[in-house]
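Ex. 9. Protein: Amino acid adenylation domain-containing protein.
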Amino acid sequence: MYFLFRDQAARHGTRPAVRDEQRTLSYAELADRAEALAGSLRERFGDDDVRIGLYCGRTVDLVIAVLGVSAAGYTYVPLDPAYPESRLDFMAKDSALAAIVSDRVLSGALAGIDVLRIDGDDQGAAAPPREELPEPSPDSTAYIIYTSGSTGRPKGVAVRRRSVAALVRGVLDQYDFGAEDVWTLLHSYCFDVSVWEMWGALASGATLVVVPSEVVRSPRATIDLMTRHRVTVMSVVPTVFRYLAAHVRTSGHWPSTLRRVVFGGEAVDAADVRIWRATAGKHCEFMNTYGITETTIYVSTRTFTDAELDAAGDERGFAAELGRPIPGWEVAVLDDAGVPVAVGETGEIWVAGIGVAEGYVNRPDLTAERFRMLDVGGGPSRLFYRSGDLAVRAAEETYHIVGRADLQVKINGFRIEPGEVEVALRGIPGVLDAIVTAGTSRRGEPMLTAHYTSESGLSPERLRELFAAEVPAHLVPGAFVRMTDLPRTASGKSDRRALSEELTESRFA
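Predicted structure tokens for Amino acid adenylation domain-containing protein:
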């Protein structure tokens, strides 16, 4: 995997590779520092197959750490300094970390683990010759990223080097990313989109701008940073983009150099794209992706056309088309019997191919449940990952994602997808964003609760009235809760689990 960067370092040694608000490193400088770190790690662990934790802030040092562990041939495990001690302790023990690379002194749950301090200003003085570094097996593990589990216990997803290399090569070969581009590293390195942001930029000879966490939390600061650094490529979760688009609309200020937005992680709302285009113009391309951590970030991609975005108009949440699988990936939409669905039918998305992960760390039961050998379409039996995502077959080779199988709820005999209600709520004037959760009423009956933010101070009572006039009665939530902000995960996605079910009578209608 490291060769993706190494080849560009040999070709573009003097070009800027990565920068934060304090430092800029050229490709040659970044290679020297990464390989110095790799040499230090190999002096300690040699050819052992070890896992190295990364505990760094959002600076250039983070990128040095990722590249250094990869160059050494080891597995990196990202540990977010913002995580609770209990989660860090679980991740460190579950992944059996041999050491941690950090830009700070460790304490608490991580204090007893061997630490290698990284200081980007000092790295590189004794970098070993590049030919001394190993060429690890493509089937070895590149990284382990922990995702939330339904039981509350995080799941460590182990992803191979060949999967990352295939993903980066496959997408770069399909689209015109190049050395003149400037990318953002907008996401936490504990979220797998960061893998694409880092390796996609550095494998194409582009410049990567590390965005500080305090900037990410502010739409204004994010837009200002992108303008200042003349960013051309941004990968972003649609929830975050919604707030960026709203700021662009109200401020009239946008990064004029931005030419491509890569969506991922959630369904895209066409209205947010329309808001951006209405202010910033139509020169920027919007690329939609579908992907899962267990299938190496992305599975399929497609670029929205001007015609379909114009046709969407003010429509909220048009059904996202699945797109074309990346070369080496395979998508099947199957019914409960494991048979491909017919046109007009809905089924669950299963993914096969080079991107399918090794499985879950120390979770053989869950691995066996989600990763299965199937002979779909009469071909040879091959490993598929069961996504839990639902899609409808709109045409022979066209699928539209419609929601999650595990979020559906049955109320008064109606099977309801909360995402459908969220989309409809966002279409109500005055509603900026919404999350719908399923719970139980005081009478013990199933009930939907709509949590929303409003630009205009729209009251829960008024929203209920407006919403009831737009949708069938069974889609009207039992409670409406106005919030200042909706909770988000470290990756920027809407965080349903963080929403409290203990609502006071005064806050909802």
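Check your answer against this statement. The first strand starts at residue 16 and ends at 19.
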